[in-house]
Write a structure and sequence with these properties.
Blueprint: H1 10-24, H2 37-46, H3 52-65, H4 69-73, H5 77-84, H6 91-107, H7 115-119, H8 126-135, H9 146-155, H10 168-177, H11 182-198, H12 217-220, H13 240-253, E1 258-259, H14 260-264, H15 270-283, E2 287-288, E3 293-295
Helix pairs in contact: 1-11, 2-3, 2-8, 5-6, 9-11, 13-15
The structure holds a DNA duplex (11 and 11 nucleotides).
EC number: 3.2.2.31
GO molecular function: 4 iron, 4 sulfur cluster binding; 8-oxo-7,8-dihydroguanine DNA N-glycosylase activity; adenine/guanine mispair binding; metal ion binding; oxidized purine DNA binding; purine-specific mismatch base pair DNA N-glycosylase activity
InterPro entries: DNA_glycosylase (IPR011257), Endonuclease-III-like_CS2 (IPR004036), Endonuclease3_FeS-loop_motif (IPR003651), HhH-GPD_domain (IPR003265), HhH_base_excis_C (IPR023170), HhH_motif (IPR000445), MIG/MutY (IPR044298)
DNA sequence: AACCCGTGGGG
DNA sequence: TCCCCAAGGGT
């Protein structure tokens, strides 16, 4: 029996999390009634590895300028990269632009409701497809992001952190925990995520204020510290990523073509600088011109 | 599967 | 200060 692995009956977990969410949820603009599926999708792209606080202002400007996929698709990809600003991982801007184009071409300009069609869009992976289907269309999907994985690892698994990569066991557990009614499942999904974001945080969880304190397997086990392989921190200083960031910052600030010399000054190592620029070009983030100039893609 | 991809804030 | 990590996706 699958549910026998749960220390707490699922319906109890549901009511606890839903009650907590209804009282403590942040009122984020992409959660309002008037938020369109496109607005939800834009938020999900921006929230991939970028904190809510930094996303908020960019999201608002973005939707004011491009309220529909067609509006974004009608502009050069470089405008999306520019408007992305300093959210980080600018390939997401490129993919969001490509997703908008695909939505116009394949789906008549409307964000598709079907999970498989969402998953087929550029930049939409397992998490984002489930998130859009759940949050925008109130469907029943397991939404497994870093917050949910951490909550389940602790509350059910009894460990401090989940594995580095999502496992089949996690997917199975998340599917088992889904409430049957789609609307309830959708609220459960966002509720667990919110709990992970506000209470069951990675660094210093506020277990004293956690609604799941009494049923938490990690608490029962005495909050044992993380055991497995170290969660590798990603170095940044001196990497190609840093160089790419500096190069792209120059191109974002300038509206027309940029001379090669303006790019050369951002990084002393010529080899690495060239490699980073080549990478940006091959990624489609930068367009080389014939006369030694560069610009954001058109 | 492991690695690459930006940026900034909080503990 | 320094380090961790933040609603991941693609290869």
């Amino acid at each position: 029996m699958a549910t026998s692995t749960l220390p707490t009956p699922a319906p109890l977990l549901h009511s606890i999390v839903l009650d907590w969410y209804r009282e403590h949820a942040r009122d984020l603009p992409w959660r309002t009634e008037q938020a369109t599926p496109w607005a939800v999708m834009v938020s999900e792209f921006m929230l991939q590895q970028t904190p809510v606080k930094r996303v908020l202002p960019v999201w608002a400007l973005w939707l004011e300028r491009w309220p529909t996929p067609a509006a974004l698709a009608a502009e050069p990809a470089g405008e999306a990269v520019r408007a992305w600003g300093r959210l980080g991982y600018p390939r997401r801007a490129l993919r969001l632009h490509a997703a908008a184009s695909a939505i116009v071409e394949r789906h008549g300009g409307l964000v598709p409701e079907d999970h498989a069609q969402l998953l087929a869009l550029p930049g939409v992976g397992e998490y984002t497809a489930a998130a859009v289907a759940s949050f925008a269309f109130k469907q029943r999907h397991a939404v497994l992001d870093t917050n949910v994985r951490r909550v389940l690892a602790r509350a059910v698994g009894g460990v401090e952190y989940p594995a580095n990569a999502t496992t089949a066991a996690e997917r199975k557990l998340a599917a088992e925990l889904l409430p049957q009614a789609p609307e309830v499942a959708a609220e459960w999904a966002v509720g667990v995520m919110e709990l992970g974001a506000l209470v069951c945080t990675a660094r210093s969880p506020e277990c004293g204020g956690c609604p799941l304190f009494e049923q938490c397997a990690w608490q029962r086990a005495g909050c044992p510290p993380h055991q497995g392989p170290p969660r590798r921190g990603q170095t940044y200083e001196g990497t190609d990523r840093q160089v790419r960031g500096k190069l792209l910052a120059v191109l974002r600030a300038q509206h027309g073509p940029v001379r090669r010399g303006q790019l050369d000054v951002v990084w002393p190592d010529e080899i690495q600088r060239a490699r980073a620029l080549d990478g940006l070009v091959s990624d489609g983030l930068v367009e080389p011109l014939a006369d030694g100039h560069y610009q954001l893609p058109r």
